[in-house]
Amino acid sequence: MMFDLHTVFTPGMDCTVRRTVTLAETAAQAGYGNRNLGHVIAPHVYIAMMAEATLGVVGHRLPEGLTSVARSMEFTHTAPSCLGMQVSVKVTLTVVNGERLYFDAQAWDDYGTVGYGKYERTVVHIGKLFERVNERLLKR
Questions:
Q1: How many DSSP H helices and E strands does the chain contain?
Q2: Residue 73: in which H helix or E strand, if any?
Q3: N or C: less crowded end of the chain, CB within 10 Å?
Q4: Cα 63 off chain centre by
């Protein structure tokens, strides 16, 4: 990659997203897992919030022709959040290494910490990404 990510990204950059847990975001409605958990938030909601927050950091900072894609994510759930609670996820950029951006995440609700995680994004050329997509589609 010809673009140096250090010119626009600095460790410590962060973004926080918040939402109130809706019925659709609960284990009972998520369409997988243990429906007996009822109105407890489904784990994929935290991953989606982490993704949204990382995009809040990356934003429109990349030049035309480049984008970022999720590479890996991990979330450890330490306490339940329930329907109607406000949940927040904050990501902080910790490392810029080549085309990779590494984030730490913290999650909390109305009563305190509910989890933590890591999220990694890779900056790619949009054209090259879709070349790879098309190559894979042609293998069908």
A1: 2, 5
A2: strand 66-77
A3: C
A4: 21
